[in-house]
Amino acid sequence: MRHLVLAALMFCALGVSTPVMAGPEKELVQGPKLGPGPTKPLPGKRVNLQLLVVHATGGATYMDPALRRWSRHLGHLRYEHFELMDRHASQLVPERAKTFSVTGGREVTVTLLQRGPERARLRIQMFKKSQKLVDTTVAVNRNGTFIVAGPRHEGGILVLPITASY
Amino acid sequence: MSEPTEIVGRLDALLMRVLDGEASSAEREELLELADADERLAAHERLRVALRTAIMEVADTPVDVVGEVLEALSIEDGWGAISNALRDEVMNFDISDSVMAAIESPALEAPVEEPAPAEEVVLSALCDGEVSIQERMALASRIAADTESRDTLNAYAQIGRLMRQSVEAEVKHVDLSGTWAAVAQAIGVEDPEHVEGWEPVGRALRDVVLTEAHMSQAESAELTEDILVAVRPRELVLLEPEAPEETVQLQPAQARHLLPAMAMAALALVVAVPFLSPSSEDSNPDEPSATEELQLDFAEINQAEVENLEYAQDVFVHVIQDDAEGAPMIIFIEEEAPMDDDLEDTGGAL
């Protein structure tokens, strides 16, 4: 029985998102497969959510190729080096919170409050250990992206582009 | 005439006394008479003969359990000499010299038919568990006082550990999920997933899950999704950390149980998932399908609006909207922002 519990815990551990420390020359980890490009509308009341974890620092100018979609906008932040650290994706249903572990002992909880034909309302909560840092409700256009940024991490900040796709 | 149950009880009592070697001749005769009179045995002549023979042979046979055990032990491991020494010295408490002499004797008496192998070869074989019991005993007593040999053994153990770590690191990058299925097919196993003896365990698990698990459809769907995400192979290579990781060295006993334990856990998941997941008939179209691949569309123009904003006392939050068309809104959080004690906090405290 003890071994069974041990093995079950190992399986549970595999389910935790894998934050990866990657140097500039390293390949980066990809999370769940995401299909780009036009897709059929997501049925029901679900919303596909993507949350990226980007490390922005000073120094040599670098933009991770995976971030090219937002490179123009990230450039407005006063940092030169942008590197994708982790990628979370999940399907949200109304009133069901999803929590994502973010490096630095932080967690981001996202709750789909409403999905309308043009906009989705999301509640975003950020925690550091047990302390709630921010609790906000954002209305974002269909397939739109907004960014939560600022938490300090290893000489820079974390930037979290959040996309609600449906 | 006695009741059948009384006869059976008497038969049982007599049989126990015979097996314990405590039955008298009269009791053995009584047992045989009862057995001969039993209608069920009447049709089994061979069985009756065998029973009679066994009962009569057990009668006065002396039993030397200690001798037999020691004799059995001495078949392969050289304990025969030790047991003899113990017997010889049984009336003398100072038997250490005899025991030590007996331990060394197998090696001394071993015939030398081939040239002795090099020391490194012997030590390597010892490290790999390839030497006989006699050789191991002889080596153990010799190495106890040989620092150089012990260092060599430690080096071999270290090399083995590093090799295992290297192999494990390589294996992490290889998808072996289909290996067993291919091997099973090659060796003619009809059902690669079949585990002998698993059915009662699976039934017990199923019963427990059905009894104890009261999950809503939403909880069930979430659990299913989490399990499948966990079990689904990672698509890209995981990176090696730049610094060597601390590895947990499993003891042989732990390692021996690890694979069966993981197999059991995997099978437990396979058994449990169907009962924790809603069936296709009662599935809610609004619930996410765990197996559905997430697809994302990205709008060319990003429009977002903050409807509500609360933040901790020591946090500053700025909402930045770039003038550029289509730029995403940025909610900028400054953790542990410096506060001037003379200023009143106008932030929206939680």
What topology emerges from the helices and strands here?
The complex is a heterodimer of chains A (166) and B (350).
Chain A: H1 2-14, E1 34-35, E2 47-57, E3 62-63, H2 71-74, E4 81-92, E5 97-102, E6 106-115, E7 119-128, E8 131-141, E9 145-153, E10 156-165
Parallel strand pairs in A: 3-4
Antiparallel strand pairs in A: 2-4, 2-10, 5-6, 6-7, 7-8, 9-10
Chain B: H1 4-19, H2 25-37, H3 39-42, H4 45-58, H5 65-77, H6 79-88, H7 96-109, H8 119-127, H9 133-143, H10 147-171, H11 179-186, H12 198-212, H13 217-231, H14 252-276, E1 294-295, E2 304-311, E3 315-320, E4 330-335
Antiparallel strand pairs in B: 3-4
Write structural notes for this entry:
The complex is a heterodimer of chains A (about 170) and B (about 350). With about 170 residues, chain A is mostly beta strands. Chain A has two helices and ten strands; from the N terminus they run H-E-E-E-H-E-E-E-E-E-E-E. Chain A has helices spanning about 1-15, 70-75, and strands at about 35, 45-55, 60-65, 80-90, 95-100, 105-115, 120-130, 130-140, 145-155, 155-165. In chain A, the strands form two sheets. A five-stranded mixed sheet of chain A has the order 3-4-2-10-9, with no helix packed on it. In chain A, strand 9 and strand 10 (about 155-165) form a beta hairpin. Chain B is mainly α. Among the domains of chain B are: about 5-60, no CATH class; about 115-175; about 200-235 and about 250-275, no CATH class; about 295-350, no CATH class. Chain B has a two-stranded antiparallel sheet.
